[in-house]
Design brief:
By secondary structure, this protein is α/β, with parallel strands linked by helices. Helix content is 46%, strand content 14%.
C-alpha cells in the first residue's frame, strides 16, 4: 500500500515537472514570437534588447551604446521635417529598363519586386518642407531599395529637387546612403553623377546652401559626386564612407588597412567631413546651420507662404 502511494506521488511529481517544463517552453516560444513581431529590438553592436517603442523615441539610436540603426526614408523625413509641412515632389517618376538588363533575373522584375515589397517607387524621396520653421528642399535616399543605388530616376529626382530649390532660393539637404551607381542601367547611371553635380554648381552660383548628410553606408558613385560637394558635410557616427570597397583597396595595395578606415571618424580626421553629428541632434544642427547662412529667412509658416508668393511673383515678372 505504501509503495503504491509512493509510486503515485512520484508520478504526480514527475507530471508536475513535465507540465512546468512544457509551460516554460511555451513562455519561451511566446517571448520569441513577441521579439519576432517587433516588440523588442536587439542591438547589432552591443546585443542589448530594447523596447522598440523606446528605440524609435530615441530616433533608432541604441540607448546603451549609441549605435545608429539604419532607418528608412519615411522615418528619416519624420525625424527631420516639421509636422504637416512635408510636400513630396516628382512622385510620378518611375524607373524603366532601357538596356533590357538580365542577370539571374530581369531588371524589370527586380524593380517590380522592390516596389511591391517596400511601397517605394525608387531609392530616393524628394520634397519641400520646413526644419524648425525654415524652408528646405530635402532628398532622402533609402538603402532598402536595391542598396540605395543611383539609377536614372534617383539622378533625375535629385536634379529636379536642386533646380526647384535654386528657383525658390531654398537650401538643399540630401541624406545620403548608397552602394553606388546602379549597374543594371550601365552608363545611364553614371551620367547621373555629372547631372546632379551640374545642378549643384548652378545652386552654388546663386550663393545658396547645400548640406549632404552622410549615413551608413555612403559609397561608390554617390560619394564620388554629390555626397562630397556640400558647403558643409555632415556625417553620422561610425558611418562607412568611401568610394571603392575595403576589400578591393586591400587587394590593390596588397596591404592591411586600419580598422577605422573609411569610417566617419577617420574622414573627419583627414578633412573630408566637417562634423560628425548624432542623429538625435541632427535636426537642431541643420536648423542652426540654415539660420546662420540665411539669417533673414522666415521662421513661421505664414511668413514662409508670403515669401514663396513674393518669390514666385518676382519670377513671373522677370
Amino acid at each position: 500500500m505504501a509503495n503504491n502511494e509512493e509510486s503515485r506521488g512520484l508520478k504526480s511529481l514527475l507530471d508536475w515537472f513535465a507540465n512546468r517544463r512544457k509551460s516554460g517552453s511555451t513562455n519561451l516560444e511566446r517571448q520569441e514570437r513577441e521579439i519576432a513581431d517587433g516588440l523588442w529590438h536587439k542591438c547589432s553592436n552591443c546585443g542589448v534588447l530594447t523596447y522598440t517603442k523606446d528605440l524609435r523615441a530615441n530616433q533608432m539610436v541604441c540607448v546603451e551604446c549609441g549605435h545608429h540603426n539604419r532607418v528608412d526614408s519615411d522615418e528619416r523625413i519624420r525625424q527631420l521635417i516639421d509636422a504637416n509641412s512635408w510636400r513630396p515632389i516628382d512622385e510620378h517618376l518611375r524607373p524603366t529598363d532601357p538596356l533590357q538588363f538580365r542577370d539571374r533575373k530581369a531588371y524589370s522584375d527586380r524593380l517590380r519586386e522592390m516596389q511591391d515589397k517596400l511601397n517605394l517607387v525608387d531609392a530616393v524621396k524628394t520634397g519641400l518642407g520646413q526644419i524648425d520653421g525654415f524652408p528646405v528642399a530635402l532628398g532622402v535616399m533609402d538603402f532598402r531599395f536595391m542598396g540605395g543605388s543611383m539609377g536614372s530616376v534617383v539622378g533625375e529626382k535629385l536634379t529636379r529637387l536642386i533646380e526647384e530649390a535654386t528657383q525658390r532660393r531654398y537650401p538643399v539637404v540630401i541624406v545620403c546612403t548608397s552602394g553606388g551607381a546602379r549597374m543594371q542601367e550601365g552608363m545611364l547611371s553614371l551620367m547621373q553623377m555629372a547631372k546632379i553635380s551640374a545642378a549643384l554648381q548652378r545652386h552654388r552660383e546663386e550663393r545658396l546652401l547645400y548640406i549632404p548628410v552622410l549615413t551608413n553606408p555612403t559609397t561608390g558613385g554617390v560619394t564620388a559626386s554629390f555626397a562630397m560637394l556640400g558647403d558643409i558635410i555632415l556625417a553620422e557616427p561610425k558611418a562607412t564612407i568611401g568610394f571603392a570597397g575595403r576589400r578591393v583597396i586591400e587587394q590593390t595595395l596588397r596591404e592591411k588597412l586600419p580598422d577605422d578606415f573609411q569610417s566617419a571618424e577617420d574622414l573627419l580626421k583627414h578633412g573630408f567631413v566637417d562634423e560628425i553629428v548624432p542623429r538625435t541632434v541632427l535636426k537642431k544642427t541643420l536648423a542652426q546651420l540654415i539660420a546662420l547662412h540665411q539669417p533673414s529667412a522666415p521662421t513661421t509658416t505664414h511668413n514662409m507662404v508670403v515669401w514663396e508668393t513674393r518669390s514666385l511673383s518676382s519670377t513671373v515678372a522677370e
